[in-house]
Amino acid sequence: MGTALGLCLCPRRENLEMKSSAPVMLPVLAMGLAAGGLEVAIRAEHRLGMTPVELLAWLAVSAALSLLYAVTVAVFASVLALRWRFLPVAGTVLGALVFLHAALYYRFQLFLNEFLYDPRVWGGLLVIAVLSMVLGFLSGPLLKRFWAPWTLSCACLALLAVVSAFLRGSVPEPPMGRESGGPNILLVTLDTVRADSLSPYGAQVDTPTAARLAREGVTFDQAIATAPLTEPSHLAIMTGLAPHHSGVISNGTDIARQPAMLSHILARAGYATGAFVSGFPLHGKYGWTQGFDVYDDDFGKMPGLHRLSLIQAWDQVALPAHTLRERSGDHVLDRALPWLERVHDQRWFLWFHLFDPHGPYEAPAPFAPSREPERGGRQLELPPYWPESQRSITDGEWLVDAYHGEVAFADYIVGRLLARVGQYGQLDDTVVVLVADHGESLTEHGYLFDHGDNLYDPSLHVPLLFRYPPVARAGLRQGCQVSTADVAPTIMELVGASDSITRDGRSLVPMLRGGPCSDQDVLATTMAGRFVKDPPVDHALRTGAYKYIDHEDSSLEDELYDLGSDPGESRNLASRFPQQATSMEQALKAGLSDSVDLRAPSTDAATTEALRALGYIE
Length: 618
Known about the structure:
- This protein is an alpha/beta fold.
- The chain is about 45% helix and about 10% strand.
- The chain has 2 domains: about 1-170, no CATH class; about 185-515, Alkaline Phosphatase, subunit A (3-Layer(aba) Sandwich).
């Protein structure tokens, strides 16, 4: 290859190039392979749950990209060396490889949230460039003199990188004796699914999987979320702690160490733990990986691809929010099933999260509306993060149908997952929990196809279903008010686990068995202004009969609703019944009396842009 390059570049100096170019390309290729392998070895993690085939494909792509880059630099350096003979080709390639990875790490890991004209950014990149050039020139003579040992060293380094990548990236075999006497746990969380969008709660659209769970398990008719946002609500589900006790009330927040999480509790109990999530607010960068053997938050079609430096740099140009923000349910299922295959002969805990119902609504056929939407007439005030292709839609009924189509698609995916568990003969020995983190406003209160800014029931009333034949009475419906924070304590009792942590949630096991159902007050919290400066924090207290909403913004009137006579929360009774409002306000403040300090969300550019693209930042 090097000989051919030399003949092509300089036919009149054929003999000279045959002597000098032939060995040059060997260290170039070796350096490219080593760089590609090292990047995967550094970025590989057990928790990604990658199979050997996926790791091999990741290594192949990384090596190909690195080789392409190295050979391209070598070709240009060879052309320049015909004019400037002092230019070392192999040294230039080494310096270019070092510059590429150092510069990308510096720019996109350390100073991503700064503009390019910031002196720290361009100054740092300039220093990296100078040091890389110096390295290239100083190493050039040595590489030319000792090209054979250098080539062999790089080849060995590439081989070691491959071995390291497999050691770091392969999912380890479970330790001998890692069993538990309890049931398997399948926790399915549906993002942005209001209760009345599932057929057990009266939806007109058929959701057969949810209907089956209702027939074969227990349905809670009045399950209330503790927050209308993905991250704080999921943390309440996983810990039993409401946002005012976890300190997390907004997406984009590092959740810190959370010993109350089910992943920790079930791992200690001997369970294999795996999570497969599909939305950016649950990315592992925020601390969600803790306690999980496998935490799959790779939203790319090819596992590992978007972790590579060159691809990350391309993402900054090609992706609107500079990062992948979500993936479809079938993609999540394709990643979860191989993990389930590996662990199905032991006790396992699987958290399966579907983001599909989140706007914009783009369900695949045959779940999408059969007719085309109307685009004429007065434009709807759709959320600003929706793409232009949907912002031109003026057909509200079509958008409602499209939302239900997304929910039906998610229901279908859950059905496929349950079918696989059934193939292993484990369905009746598995606690299946289906719950949503929050709902969605479908025009209620003038809030079109969005959530997060308010604490009305369309965003807080969610489905909650349990299926576990040994305990949960088939077909039972419980009408009392419960909280999504009850999920963790219920699972803990079902597996016989306990700890000393005081939780806001309570175990629902007695109600699963058919015991009396009693209302529990639920306190919900949200950042009404999301990521605006000094955002107001609103709280709501929902009893079985009333809801009281406290606005931190003093310009807004607090709200009181009689849920029995006004389930749509259309008549604010705070001024008409001041004693009831005062009583609810005092109860709310008492519930908040032991609140912890709120954790601030991340402000780096990648997080901000990704959350803005999902509508979580204004």
